[in-house]
Write a structure and sequence with these properties.
The complex is a heterodimer of chains A (330) and B (271). Chain A contains 13 helices and 2 strands; from the N terminus they run H-H-H-E-E-H-H-H-H-H-H-H-H-H-H. Chain A has 330 residues and is mainly α. In chain A, helix 1 packs antiparallel against helix 12. The longest helix of chain A has 39 residues. Chain A starts with a helix and ends with a helix. The mean pLDDT of chain A is 82. With 271 residues, chain B is mostly helical. Chain B contains 13 helices and no strands. The chains are: A mainly alpha (330), B mainly alpha (271). Chains A and B meet through helix 1, helix 6, helix 7, helix 10 and helix 11 of A and helix 4, helix 5, helix 9, helix 10 and helix 11 of B.
Chain lengths: 330, 271
């Protein structure tokens, strides 16, 4: 028990440390902008007064960190302590108050913009997972049950092709077939329930391929276990053996992969949302953030996506431990 | 080697040859627009047809292979080198060095979805080929570091390492002369999958407008330009050819990586 508690504490400690570093990295991203961020946003024509006003409003007039090495008039760099009046400190205080700053362009609070778009992205990611699972379980079981046969080989090649086809190739092709040629679905937007089909398939395709491989090797492994022999010996049909016994055990590693893949789905959603004009975090990041050089939106989106990813990973890990007692012991 | 990895190898060799001899293979200027010739279907003059501004798609796909290959090779070499160095140090010294490196630094880098970190870096640095390569190296090295760390942890327990130590060899010699040569074999699998990943990431970032700026014939840029509804309607081949090029290249590297993994890991071979 004591051992378990220590393990949990260690994990939480690491989680806090990682989140702290990720937030810190995001806050200093703006230092990477070549030249003056204010000029980058307002343009060369902006007056000195406008620039100064902009810097004050977004805290860009403050030093970026607790200390720095500014150059003096002879070009020599010296250590200088700035104290608590710095942007890093400001950013942290604001975050702890649920404030991610305001948009460089529209002055809207970034937190609200993200909150507005968040549900659409989660909806898309979950739908993509559903698509992936619905494809992967039957195909993976089929391949695993028929290991080494033509069916297995064909499914393996199919899975590799699926992994290799990026969303920005599948997506536009689906648009071409189902929107342009057949006219069954809308090419973009989020108005009707059917609008999610194409983005979900695009985003879920690669995941379904990865999962198919996972389910296959899981099924193969479990089929060699003693309990399968017992189940068969007591006269259960092959169908019941596979779907009631093998899958139940075989899905444990699949759950982990599913959780770890959520991050890849969130990152992939950036591209999928751009293809289909799906109004989620990805579109906010690409169009309003990167497209308009609205750096505060970019920072907010990166922070929101990576935090979701970290939390999802931690939850997956806990779920995995809970599902499989064998791991808990080791 | 299984059949799929041979297919993969053949595709990769063709891809590399096309990239090297691009100026002799392509027969049009990749930037030459000709509005009178826009949306032409594939023909003897234009094997892959022309795009929305009348540029020859075949020539652009051929030169696109150059960009993909350049990015892939540089990213894999640099990240493998950095990753091997850091992974070897973490695995060899263990203790607090390892706690900081693998317990903390690796986890921080793995805490970002890779593509997101690359997007964030390029969004702030500004688009461009060099910045894209830099961003892909930043997200790429961790995979190699983790792999090499695990390998070094295993190899350093072998008798010949103990023997070398008993003979008075220093840390540097033991690590680089005795351990690393015996630990880097799985690196080749990771490098092959890494090429697939780098080609895919370059195309993804270029697709998002964060990679090579538009007139350049990156496959990702070509797909971005081909996906608006009027172009899709008039010239679906403008989307299909660069799409197939990306898919085939990535597939080929994945085939090779998979084949090598099976070859190196006999446990997988039996399955």
């Amino acid at each position: 028990m004591k051992h378990k508690l220590l393990g949990l504490l260690r994990r939480i400690g690491l989680l806090v440390l990682v989140v702290w570093t990720v937030v810190s990295l995001v806050t200093i991203l703006i230092e990477l902008v070549p030249g003056d961020p204010a000029v980058a946003v307002l343009g060369e024509q902006a007056t000195a007064e406008q620039l100064a006003q902009f810097r004050t409003k977004h805290g860009l007039d403050r030093p970026s960190f607790f200390f720095g090495f500014p150059a003096d008039e002879h070009g020599q760099r010296h250590f200088q302590w700035y104290g608590l009046k710095n942007r890093y400190d400001d950013y942290w205080i604001a975050i702890l108050h649920g404030d991610l700053g305001t948009s460089f362009r529209t002055d809207q609070p970034v937190f609200n913009l993200i909150l507005e778009r968040y549900p659409a992205t989660i909806e898309l990611a979950l739908a993509a997972m559903l698509v992936a699972v619905a494809i992967a379980i039957p195909l993976g079981v089929m391949a695993g049950k028929n290991r080494g046969t033509m069916i297995d080989n064909a499914l393996s090649v199919f899975a590799l092709v699926g992994i290799s086809l990026p969303g920005f190739v599948i997506g536009p092709m689906l648009v071409y077939i189902f929107a342009v040629k057949l006219g069954w679905l809308a090419p973009s937007g989020r108005f009707d329930w059917s609008d999610i089909i194409l983005p979900a398939v695009t985003l879920g395709a690669a995941l379904s391929a990865i999962l198919t491989r996972m389910v296959r090797s899981s099924v193969i492994e479990e089929l060699g276990e003693g309990y399968v022999r017992t189940a068969r010996a007591k006269g259960l049909s092959e169908r019941a053996v596979v779907y009631k016994h093998v899958l139940k055990n075989g899905l444990i590693p699949v759950v982990t992969v599913l959780g770890l893949q959520l991050g890849i789905l969130l990152a992939g959603a950036i591209i999928t949302e751009k293809i289909f004009g799906w109004p989620g975090l990805g579109l906010l990041l690409v169009e309003d953030g990167i497209g308009k050089r609205d750096y505060s939106i970019v920072q907010g989106c990166v922070l929101a996506i990576s935090t979701t990813y970290i939390v999802a990973n931690t939850l997956t890990d806990m779920l995995y431990r809970w599902l499989d007692p064998r791991i808990r012991v080791s | 080697m299984n059949r799929l990895s041979i297919i993969g190898l053949v595709i990769v060799i063709i891809f590399v040859l096309v990239a090297i001899f691009a100026p002799w293979i392509a027969h049009y200027d990749v930037g030459a627009t000709n509005l009178a010739m826009r949306y032409m279907p594939p023909s003897a003059a234009h094997w892959f047809g022309t795009d929305s501004t009348g540029r020859d798609i075949f020539s652009r796909v051929v030169f696109g292979a150059r960009i993909s290959l350049e990015v892939g090779v540089i990213v894999v070499l640099v990240s493998a080198f950095i990753g091997t160095l850091i992974g070897a140090i973490a695995g060899f010294y263990s203790g607090w060095v390892d706690s900081i490196l693998s317990g903390y630094i690796f986890n921080v880098f793995l805490a970002f979805p890779g593509l997101l970190l690359a997007i964030a870096l390029v969004a702030f640095l500004g688009a461009g080929l060099n910045k894209l390569i830099f961003a892909l190296c930043i997200i790429g090295w961790v995979g190699y570091a983790r792999l090499i760390r695990a390998q070094v942890l295993k190899v350093r327990e072998y008798d010949f390492v103990q023997a070398a130590r008993a003979l008075g060899a220093g840390d540097f010699r033991i690590l680089f002369v005795h351990i690393l040569p015996n630990a880097i074999q799985p690196l080749i699998v990771q490098a092959s999958l890494g090429m697939a990943g780098a080609v895919l990431s370059e195309a993804s970032l270029s697709f998002l407008g964060l990679g090579v700026p538009p007139p350049a014939p990156s496959w990702g840029v070509m797909i971005e330009e081909a996906r608006d509804l009027s172009t899709l309607q008039a010239a679906p081949h403008a989307l299909i050819f660069p799409g197939v090029a990306i898919a085939l290249t990535v597939l080929a590297f994945n085939f090779i990586g998979d084949g090598l993994r099976e070859y190196l890991d006999p446990r997988q071979r039996r399955r």
